[in-house]
Design brief:
mainly beta; Fumarylacetoacetate hydrolase, domain 2; twelve-stranded mixed sheet; five-stranded mixed sheet; Fumarylacetoacetase_C_sf; Fumarylacetoacetase-like_C; hydrolase activity
Length: 285
């Protein structure tokens, strides 16, 4: 299944689509017994199944004719992974760690498909990072790697747009990763059963103004999906609806000479097999 969150005529809605089928959905005001997708995830598999059945009995939702929202609006945690592709580690001149590099994003930075990524007034060093997102469906602490994929609800796309000058002002990257309007997430969530286990073998690309600037396979991730879930859950309880943004491959703008910063008027697209195309124009704040 695919789950889409949208707004039309001022009303927020959800839509679902079976594999290869069109979207059907309802406004949230018409499904008060289920709430939002995040509420259903917290309530468990039966609630998600009931919500899906309800959505599929709704009205057709034309993907191109609605305004898109992040598929989940307020995840309790957005855990991001840095330096998870060796070629990206090499291009940044960093030392590859034998433990994942972990930082946080916050929900206040999230935007959806076709919404503008905002270049803030205080910086011009706006970079792109195309990534795969892991959406947690079943929570837990100290999740063993052997069963980690059972905790995945689905996958989506992310553009971890970063202000590089702010990112390097401190040893921690959080400040450069959380400007409002820089965390693009979507266009929808694809449930894990529609993709290879652990999202293996997906071709991931980022395009800036139609030119491919990043291209790799998820097979090249140093820490795979199951390892990330096991490692993160050693420290914290993962909850349904939490996001793990799994890292970006080589080709980021800061590694170009001169740097290739995103600017107003540009369009950035992140795409991967089975996950659609996450498209965002760039605009000034």
């Amino acid at each position: 299944m695919k789950y889409l969150r949208f707004i039309r005529n001022g009303h927020v809605g959800l839509a679902a689509a079976a594999e290869g089928e069109e979207f059907f959905g309802r406004f949230l005001t018409d499904i008060p017994e289920f709430g939002d997708l995040s509420d259903a995830l917290l309530a468990g598999d039966e609630a998600v199944a009931s919500l899906c059945e309800c959505l599929l009995q709704g009205e057709p939702v034309a993907f191109e004719d609605v305004d898109h929202l992040p598929p989940l609006i307020s995840p309790s945690k957005i855990v991001c992974i840095g330096l998870n592709y060796r070629d990206h580690t090499n291009e940044t001149g960093s030392v590859q760690s034998d433990y994942p590099t972990i930082f946080s994003r916050f929900a206040s930075s999230l935007i959806g498909h076709r919404q503008p990524i905002l270049r803030p007034r205080v910086s011009r060093n706006l970079d792109y990072e195309g990534e795969i997102v892991i959406v947690i469906g079943k929570g837990g602490r100290a999740i063993p790697k052997v069963s980690a994929l059972d905790h995945v609800f689905g996958y989506s796309l992310f553009n971890d747009a970063s202000l590089r000058d702010y990112q390097t002002r401190t040893p921690q990257w959080t400040i450069g990763k959380n400007f409002d309007g820089t965390g693009s997430f979507g266009p929808y969530i694809v449930t894990a059963d529609e993709l290879p286990a652990g999202a293996k073998g997906l071709q991931l690309q980022t395009l800036l103004n139609g030119e491919i600037v990043q291209e790799s396979s998820t097979d090249e991730m140093i820490f795979d999906v199951a390892t990330l879930i096991e490692t993160i859950s050693e420290v914290m309880t993962l909850s349904p609806g939490d996001l793990i943004v799994s890292g970006t491959p080589a080709g980021v703008g800061v590694a170009h000479t001169p740097p290739l910063w995103m600017k107003p008027g540009d369009t950035c697209i992140v795409t991967a097999d089975g996950l659609g195309r996450l498209t965002n124009p760039i605009a000034d704040e």
